[in-house]
Amino acid sequence: MKQFIAKILSHASVSDCFFELAFAWDAAAGPVLPGQFCTIRVSPYSAPLLRRPFAFSRYDEKTGVAAIAYKKRGPATELLSCKPAGGTINIIGPLGNDFFRFATAGYAHFYLVAGGTGFGPVAFLANHCAQRNLACTVVLGCRTRSQLPRLNLLPSVKAVVCTDDGSEGIHGTPLTYLATLSPMQYASSAVFSCGPAPLLAGCHEWALARGLSCFVSVEQVMACGVGACMGCAVRVTDAGANGFARACTEGPVFDSRRILWT
Ligand SMILES: Cc1cc2nc3c(=O)[nH]c(=O)nc-3n(C[C@H](O)[C@H](O)[C@H](O)COP(=O)(O)OP(=O)(O)OC[C@H]3O[C@@H](n4cnc5c(N)ncnc54)[C@H](O)[C@@H]3O)c2cc1C
Ligand code: FES
């Protein structure tokens, strides 16, 4: 992990609300794995004061290029969206744990479920699965067709698109699709999920009811991003952790059975 100033290599919209920002990675910060994130200081001025966390959407050790895919939401992402290729950003990363710290042996197939801003980390995860010959299906949910990120950001893996309004793919959410699967289809599978809390909770319940493992990346609001403030605390089932775990250092990826969902 390292703080550094990175050169922006490309910055483009990949749907009507998503941007992909690729930047030069400092090799001294170490390699990046799917599920990990960086924090970005978008302005040298006092506002917005806090760094903002973004999951990596790709990383290539050979070319030294990393990227994030983000949605414009408020002041920080608005400022970020104005940064041109050739400019710089202030990065700290890589931070947090990764999906592959959880054993992948014993699973024949992975459902990689993304909702909204979960697209970036799931695209990164799908590329890793493809490189390691791990069978996977990407299940991508968004509100409507125009918000669907360009699917060429995904490797050649099976992808199922779900839209809330039915304008593309399945009419419904990724949970609508999961509910249609038969025991033959989900046997020996595990779920990796990134996105809004109701989607993560739904994936957890779906997997639990079928005796499958589910790993989720939580999007807690973060202040320091490095374990110092407890601002990102998640309620967990193990009393040994005083009932809380820090999403920025012990997560953001958790075994869904460890999280107290209610
Ligand atoms: C581990 C992690 C990975 C993330 N990965 C992505 C990603 O790949 N793409 C993406 O678009 N977004 C991602 N986010 C969310 C991103 O951090 C927020 O969208 C961003 O901070 C919004 O800042 P803003 O000033 O534009 O909006 P604000 O007006 O400050 O906030 C808009 C909403 O964004 C969320 N938010 C605000 N500040 C934070 C914060 N410090 N930490 C987390 N959430 C916050 C809140 O839900 C808030 O209601 C991630 C968050 C976390 C914790
Ligand atoms: S954001 Fe400060 S401890 Fe996680």
Describe the protein.
The chain has two domains: 2-95, Elongation Factor Tu (Ef-tu), domain 3 (Beta Barrel); 99-219, Rossmann fold. The chain is built from five helices and 15 strands. It has helices at residues 75-80, 119-131, 174-178, 183-186, 197-209, and strands at residues 2-13, 18-24, 37-41, 52-60, 65-71, 88-95, 109-115, 136-142, 158-163, 170-171, 189-194, 213-217, 233-235, 244-246, 253-255. The strands form three sheets. The protein has a seven-stranded mixed beta sheet with strand order 10-9-8-7-11-12-15, sandwiched between helices. Strands 1-2-5-4-3-6 form a six-stranded antiparallel beta barrel. The protein has a two-stranded antiparallel ribbon with strand order 13-14. A hairpin with a 4-residue loop joins strand 4 and strand 5.
* Spatial ordering of strands, largest sheet: 10-9-8-7-11-12-15
CATH fold group of the largest domain: Rossmann fold
CATH-assigned homologous superfamily of the largest domain: Nucleotide-binding domain of ferredoxin-NADP reductase (FNR) module
Count helical runs. 5
Low-confidence stretches: none
CATH architecture of the largest domain: 3-Layer(aba) Sandwich
Q: Evaluate the radius of gyration.
A: 18 Å
**Average pLDDT number:** 94
Question: What compounds are bound to the protein?
Answer: flavin-adenine dinucleotide, FE2/S2 (inorganic) cluster
The general outline is: globular
The SS-based structural class is alpha/beta
The end-to-end span amounts to 33 Å
Largest sheet: 7 strands, mixed
Strand fraction: 25-35%
Which CATH class of the largest domain is shown? Alpha Beta
